[in-house]
């Protein structure tokens, strides 16, 4: 599933990376959220491959709404909600299918990922170096579940949402809650984990995640909007983890140290933009108890 609203060149690369898969057992559904330029949609609709389906929403649903529409349209047992600016490596489908065959019970399959910039060059900014430090160590496919997994993701969300293969039954059961756009992936993973689901983590790099200034997360950082959303999720999750009897996860949610540090790192941009409201929001998120 590929929700689309963005640059044509990135979109074309994303689609072509799916077409280039060595394993042909896939279906691509592009859901255009009424992007103003009709050219990307016209290009996609003209692709001569029965596995590719192009749809355009009747009205703009927004980020969260379009993800929910994608979930509604899933037809297979597993689904990927791929970013329209990311790239699958040619072996992505083959690797994920192999992992799913060995662990059919895995709720979330997180394959190996590298990071590229807006022009497609290898990129390793601070956020991704921190993810490397926080991610579980080990080698080869390995499974995690319960409080250990929840606490780790709450200390710092090291997963790469657009690369994840989800079990459709759980994706449909929990879905993406309205009101969350920046942290909708973390919210969904926590729901699945609290329900007893597991993550299969792999090292083999088969996906390129594009980190650039036009992403939702980047655009909502300096004004503090994404941190207000994160704070709502952390506050709610801390209470739920306490009730569940997961004290380490509850503590990680209350402290959310990496989120606080991320807010602090956005402060210079807010200062340069002469945005007092953004500055205040960032400071509040960083230092609040």
Could you say which structural class the secondary elements and strand pairing correspond to? alpha/beta
Q: Helical segment tally?
A: 13
What is the C-level CATH assignment of the largest domain?
A: Alpha Beta
Strand coverage percent? 15-25%
Instruction: Tell me, rounded to a whole number, the average pLDDT.
Output: 91
CATH superfamily of the largest domain: Spore Coat Polysaccharide Biosynthesis Protein SpsA, Chain A
CATH architecture title of the largest domain: Alpha-Beta Complex
Radius of gyration, rounded? Answer: 19 Å
Layout of helices and strands, plus pairs?
Layout: E1 2-4, H1 8-19, E2 28-32, H2 39-45, E3 52-56, H3 62-73, E4 78-80, E5 87-88, H4 92-102, E6 108-116, H5 126-134, E7 142-145, H6 146-155, E8 165-167, H7 168-174, H8 184-194, E9 198-210, H9 216-219, H10 225-244, H11 247-255, H12 257-272, H13 276-287
Parallel strand pairs: 1-2, 2-3, 6-9
Antiparallel strand pairs: 4-8, 5-9, 6-8, 7-9
Q: Can you offer a commentary on this structure?
A:
The chain is an alpha/beta fold and 289 residues long. It folds into two domains: 2-217, Spore Coat Polysaccharide Biosynthesis Protein SpsA, Chain A (Alpha-Beta Complex); 220-287. The chain has 13 helices and nine strands. Strands 4, 5, 6, 7, 8 and 9 form a six-stranded mixed sheet that branches. A three-stranded parallel sheet has the order 1-2-3, sandwiched between helices. It is globular, with a radius of gyration of 19 Å. The relative contact order is 0.13. The mean pLDDT is 91.
């Amino acid at each position: 599933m590929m929700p689309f609203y963005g640059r044509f060149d990135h979109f074309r690369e994303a689609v072509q990376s799916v077409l280039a898969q060595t394993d042909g057992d896939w279906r691509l559904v592009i859901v255009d959220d009424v992007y103003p330029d009709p050219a990307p949609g016209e290009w996609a609709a003209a692709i001569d491959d029965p596995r590719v389906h192009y749809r355009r929403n009747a009205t703009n649903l927004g980020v969260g709404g379009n993800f929910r529409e994608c979930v509604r349209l899933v037809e297979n047992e597993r689904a990927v909600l791929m970013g329209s600016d990311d790239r699958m490596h040619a072996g992505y489908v083959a690797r994920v299918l192999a992992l799913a065959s060995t662990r059919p019970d895995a709720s979330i399959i997180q394959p190996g990922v590298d990071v590229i910039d807006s022009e497609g060059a290898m990129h390793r900014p601070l956020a991704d170096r921190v993810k490397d430090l926080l991610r579980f160590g080990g080698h080869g496919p390995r499974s995690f579940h319960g409080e250990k997994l929840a606490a780790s993701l709450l200390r710092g969300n090291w997963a790469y949402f657009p690369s994840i293969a989800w079990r459709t039954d759980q994706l449909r059961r929990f879905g993406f809650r309205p009101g969350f756009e920046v942290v909708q992936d973390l919210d969904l993973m926590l729901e699945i984990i609290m329900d007893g689901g597991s993550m299969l983590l792999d090292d083999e790099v088969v996906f390129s995640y594009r980190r650039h200034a036009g992403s939702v997360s980047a655009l909502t950082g300096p004004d503090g909007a994404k941190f207000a959303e994160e704070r709502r999720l952390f506050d709610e999750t801390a209470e739920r983890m306490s009730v569940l009897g997961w004290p380490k996860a509850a503590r990680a949610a209350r402290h959310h140290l990496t989120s606080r540090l991320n807010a602090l790192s956005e402060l210079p941009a807010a200062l340069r933009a002469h945005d007092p409201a953004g500055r205040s929001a960032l400071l509040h998120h960083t230092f609040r108890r």
